[in-house]
Amino acid sequence: MALLPIVIAPDQRLRVKCTPVVTVDGELRRLADTMLETMHAAPGIGLAAPQVSDTRRLIVVDVARGEEKPDPLRLANPEIVWRSLETRLAEEGCLSLPDQYAEVERGVAVKMRYMDMDGAMQEIGAEGLLAACLQHEIDHLDGILFVDHLTALRRGMIMRRMKKLKRHGEVA
Ligand code: ZN
Q1: CA–CA separation, 110 vs 164, rounded Å?
Q2: From start to end of 108-143, where are the E strands?
Q3: Domains (ranges, CATH) in the chain?
Q4: N or C: which end of the chain has fewer CB within 10 A?
Q5: Residue ranges with strand state E in 109-155
Q6: What is the reported pLDDT for 172?
Q7: What pLDDT is stored for residue 103 in this prediction?
Q8: For position 45, what pLDDT does the model report?
Q9: Active site amino acids
Q10: Could you tell me the distance, in angstroms and rounded to a whole number, from the CA of residue 122 to the centre of ligand 1?
Q11: Ligand 1 centroid to residue 50 C-alpha, Å
């Protein structure tokens, strides 16, 4: 299976508010599988549809590390239904902003609802890295990047670096 090209910031495709998935069919399942392959190859722990130029509310995540067994999740129309008041600062990166990292404050735990790849509604709880990753990926579906959670100064620094990288053709 061919990997999908990842959209690199700044790019208007990363600023789109995505539309709900209406039906889960073979085409959507194949897209989710290809997104997982693309994400694993990058490598990364999460990928959202707009990062591969699709505008549907679909994300994939897999936070298993090193020797851990892969634990891929494919979520359509993911929605946070509860977020802990307790927050935590943790370093994040993004496949659409290669080599840029910053600490982002997010809820420590979340409960979410989503549609699985059989079209059934599911609810899961997550905490720690998985919770942060899910919040990061759901942001993408609303055109929000992790840098949007930073101060304007810090965000400006990172986006200027990204523009320079793109200008020099170091990233696509
Ligand atoms: Zn991202």
Answers
A1: 36
A2: 109-115, 121-127
A3: 12-167 (3.90.45.10)
A4: N
A5: 109-115, 121-127
A6: 64
A7: 97
A8: 96
A9: 137
A10: 23
A11: 10
- What distance in angstroms lies between residue 144's CA and the mean position of ligand 1's atoms? 9
Q: How high is the pLDDT of residue 81?
A: 98
The Cα 1–Cα 142 span in angstroms is 28
* Mean pLDDT per 10-residue section of the chain, whose length is 172 residues: 93 98 97 97 96 98 89 97 98 97 97 98 97 98 98 97 88 68
Q: Please give the distance, rounded to the nearest whole angstrom, from the Cα atom of residue 146 to the centre of ligand 1.
A: 7
**How many Å apart are CA 99 and CA 146, to the nearest integer?**
13
For every residue of 34-101, DSSP letters joined together read HHHHHHHHTT-SEEEGGGGT--BSEEEE----TTSPP--EEEEEEEEEEE-S-EEEEEEEETTEEEEE
d(CA 59, CA 21): 11
pLDDT of residue 66: 79
Specify the pTM.
Answer: 0.95
